[in-house]
Amino acid sequence: MTLKSKKTNSRLRRWLIALTAIVVVAALALWPTKYYVEVPGGADKLSKFVQVDGKRDQQSGSYRLMTVGIIGPASPLVLAWGKTQPFADFVSKSELMGDSSSAEYTELQIYYIKSAANAAVVSAMHAAKKPVTIQYKGIYVMSIMKNSHFGRDLHLGDTITAINGKHYAKSADYINAIKAHPAGTKVTITYVHKGHTYHATQPLVPLKGTSRAGLGISLTDHTVIKSQPKVKINAGAIGGPSAGLMFTLQVYDQVTGSNLRRGRTVAGTGTMDDAGNVGVIGGIDKKVYAAAKAGATIFFAPDVPATKQMRREDPTYVNNYVEAKRAAKKMGTKMKIVPVRNLADAIDYLQRN
User: Fold this and answer.
1) Is 258 a catalytic residue?
2) For this structure, is 7 an active site residue?
3) How many domains, in total, are found in the chain?
4) 246/345 same-domain check
5) Is 334 found in the same domain as 241?
6) How confident is the model at residue 5 (pLDDT cuts 50, 70, 90)?
7) Domain-terminating residue out of 206, 223, 240
8) Exposure pattern of 92-125 as b/e (b: 16+ CB <10 Å)?
9) What is the predicted pLDDT for the residue at 20?
């Protein structure tokens, strides 16, 4: 072999090594795994999302809407980065989204936050003793399970308006009407798809993890709220139901002019129903972290004791308030973690402190 040939081979080996390194780095950085990384998200001011009679809150201080950042499908490099982040968790797509696609999951979260906003307005108006009316359109189809016989008829975002010809006042009434029948029973639903009304008759299916039968969908109330004064909530691209409590406090403060926060940065999380009850959420450790970094001095955490049903569905259930206290202690933050079970608990605390 000539000297020239040796140099050519050496150069070729270097190119091959460099090319291999580039491919490996690219795979680590770009090749998706089946996992997603959940990390602390933002602590947005609620005043930019809420308007009362067309006006935004101008008082000092702020209420904060807490979010969790979701990155994925994560590459190996992102997974490695996630291990360096505080309170990061790794979840599979099925754990995060169930049977939904990424697009369906995103749309699902938007429907949830719209429902949360409506419940917040109702609860705030009731607490403020202001006029509010709820028009129940039916139930939103949030996702469709693989075993559902209605999968050939329904689409994500459709509104079911009647079961066997009867319209009900809220989702719980629809669920109660359906669960009275065993799996295999045929029921007729009336539903609205893209502005047109349709009917479909299919058998009910057993619901996983329960002894009940159902349509094989997840759902939430489709409501239209009218209040005096008029309240408008637009959360933009933020999704999920966990902002309910903080939406409610923001609306209540603006409607009543109470100025409960008195210049403070107040954060928190929890779902909210029409009756003012606070419900459990996920990722509260991440929300505590984000709130503390945003300078919040108060953090409201759902204090919902585990029922027997909750224990059956999730044997590892830990009270949100307990989780939040642990996260705050781990961080060493002086932010006050306040347990709440309903809207009145939060209002009372702000009035007294």
Assistant:
1) no
2) no
3) 2
4) yes
5) yes
6) low
7) 223
8) ebeebbeebeeebbebbbbbbbbbbbbbbbbbbb
9) 52
Structure confidence by residue, pLDDT tens digits, 143-182: 888 889 999 999 988 999 999 999 998 888 998 999 889 9
pLDDT tens-digit readout, 40-56: 999 999 999 999 999 99
Mean pLDDT over 267-286 rounds to 95
DSSP H helices, the chain, are 3-30, 76-82, 93-97, 102-128, 171-179, 244-256, 284-293, 308-313, 320-331, 343-352
Q: Is the dihedral of CA 334, 297, 291, 248 positive or negative?
A: positive
pLDDT computed for residue 150 by the predictor: 94
Q: Which of 242, 293, 329, 330 is catalytic?
A: 242
Beta-bridge partners for 16: none
Domain of 249, in residue numbers: 41-68+116-129+232-352
Same domain for 216 and 243, yes or no, is no
Q: How many CB atoms lie within 10 A of CB 16?
A: 10
3-state secondary structure 199-227: EEEEECEECCCCCCEECCEEEEEEEEEEE
At 60, which CATH number?
3.30.230
Q: Which of 223, 258, 291 is the last residue of a domain?
A: 223
- What is residue 27's predicted lDDT score, i.e. its pLDDT? 47
Q: How many Cα atoms within 13 Å fall on the side-chain side of residue 191?
A: 23
Model confidence, pTM: 0.83
Average pLDDT over residues 2-9: 52
Q: Which of 287, 308, 330, 336 is catalytic?
A: 287
